[in-house]
Amino acid sequence: MQSPKSSSDPKIPIGVKVAYGGAEGASSLLFTVVSIFFLIFLTDVVGMSPRLASLVLFASNAWDAISDPFMGVITDRTKSKYGRRRPYLLGIALPFALIFWLIFTTPHLHGPALFAYFLAMSILMRTSITVLDVPYTALAPEMTKDYDERTSLVSYRTVWSQATSIIGATMMPLVVRHFSDPKTGWSVAGAFFGALCILPILLTWRFTRGWERYSADLRPLNLKDMSEAVFGNRTFRYVIGIYLFCLTAIYASGAVAPYFLRYWMNFSEGDQSIFFGVLFACTIVWVPLIALASNKLGKRAALIIFMGSWALTYGVGALLVQPGQKIFLYILAALASGGVAAAYQLTWAIIPDVVEIDEFKTGARREGLYYGVAIFIQKTGSAVSLLIVGQILGWIGYAPNVAQSSSALFGIRMMFGPLIAAMLILSIILAYFMPMTRDRHRALVKAIEQKRANLPYDDSGFRELL
Predict the structure, then answer these.
(1) pLDDT tens digits, residue range 211-247?
(2) Cβ atoms within 10 Å of 406's Cβ, excluding its own
(3) Which structural domain, as residue segments, surrounds residue 442?
(4) Residue 181 main-chain phi, psi, to 5 deg
(5) Is residue 11 part of a domain?
(6) Rounded CA gap, 197 and 192, in Å?
(7) Residue 448 is part of a domain; what is its CATH number?
(8) Among 203, 243, 189, 283, which Cα is nearest to 374's?
(9) Angle between helical axes of 147-176 and 438-452 (0-180°, round to 10)
């Protein structure tokens, strides 16, 4: 792998970009499997009620959300000859795999003890994701300051994300079905996919060495600093709102999809694998098109276009599709996948731009803080969506492994369609008013360079960002 020639060279070799995406592949594999299958695993395999299972997911996600900003501060303050982000990738690789196995392993426990086990494993799982994701995502803005190069870097990361999501979403149920005992099948699948995560994490750790080109001073931070930096950053407030509604839509649709496919569409495990395969495979196809739209129209406009397409597809199409209409549903999945890919690809490409606003104001680069808060929003969206889905399932009278009542089926359809569309529409409204543009970002970076050199600078080109 090529090493950086100088900190002024904004271009990153393709090989480094590919390697950078590896850790995202591992994280997305676990996150996708848990988001799609963990709730129905707890209700239909372990035997928990939907409301109790959703409490397990909500509590662990709440812990995860709280820990993320603090992990960001920790990585910002880390001092190591190996960098301040990369050592965490090396340390978490093996524990990450072990926890993947344990989260889908059912012990010989009952009642409160069984609930406590899955709550503890779920908290450990969320902690491992925090230790991996926060320093990993904060590494991106330290690799390049270029507006479009960041979109390119995140695009490679998105390809990894969607590729491993395909593997997890399609292969997990296929592995399980080969075992007569579902509990054994889920445990074996968890162990297999956990082991699969180790190599991509180590790939990122090894080949991003030497590319932390824009690390900054490690001044101590406190809660007041965190509050002022984040909530005093107008553009970031829009970004976290967009991100919250996008991701809540993603996680809610992922959690309710197995129920929709099994009980409304009457899909077999093979049919479900095809659905998720189409969904995630098409997200990879959309990635270069999203990057092209972002380069031509800007990140904000591209986000509005793809979120709007997804909202229309699910808001209308999910109510029209009838049991047995497999091709129709696969087409809906292919169309909606563009919005799923854009939600990750464009929001993560916008966040590094927001870091420069804080740098202009404070003189410090605090990527870890901002990425910690962004992942806090990600986990909050996950917690809220899974709690909503679980509680609604209990409210509409869902019963596992039996034919559902008409009211339960109607509730599942409404969750999978209009509820998702409503969340996406809220994200579109916020994106429309978000002030960050390519020209304003370029003017901002120029002013930062002039300010750092003690030269006069002009803030008229980006005043709306402040």
Answers:
(1) 877 665 444 445 566 666 667 788 888 888 888 888 8
(2) 7
(3) 17-210+220-454
(4) -95, 115
(5) no
(6) 9
(7) 1.20.1250.20
(8) 243
(9) 120
Cβ(370)–Cβ(355) below 8 Å? yes
Q: How many C-beta atoms surround the C-beta of residue 380 within 10 A?
A: 21
What single-letter DSSP state applies at residue 208?
Answer: T
Cβ atoms of residues 233 and 357 within 8 Å: yes
Position of tokens 């012990």?
107
Question: What tokens does 128 get?
Answer: 């491992």
pTM: 0.74
User: Does the residue 123 lie in any domain?
Assistant: yes
DSSP output for 290-358? HHHHHHHH-HHHHHHHHHHHHHHIIIIIHHH--TT-HHHHHHHHHHHHHHHHHHHHHHHHHHHHHHHHH
Q: For 366-400, how does the pLDDT look when each residue is reduced to its tens digit (9 = 90+)?
A: 766 777 677 677 777 777 888 888 889 989 999 88
Per-residue CA distances from 95 to 63, 129, 201 (Å): 18, 10, 12
Q: Report which of 52, 140, 106 is spatially closest to residue 347, judged by C-alpha positions.
A: 140
Q: What single-letter DSSP state applies at residue 84? A: S
CB 25 within 8 Å of CB 163: yes
Tokens of 404: 């559902």
> From CA 134, how far away is CA 70, in angstroms rounded?
10
Tokens (6 digits) for 94: 């093996």
Residue 296 CB partners (closer than 8 Å, separation 6+): none
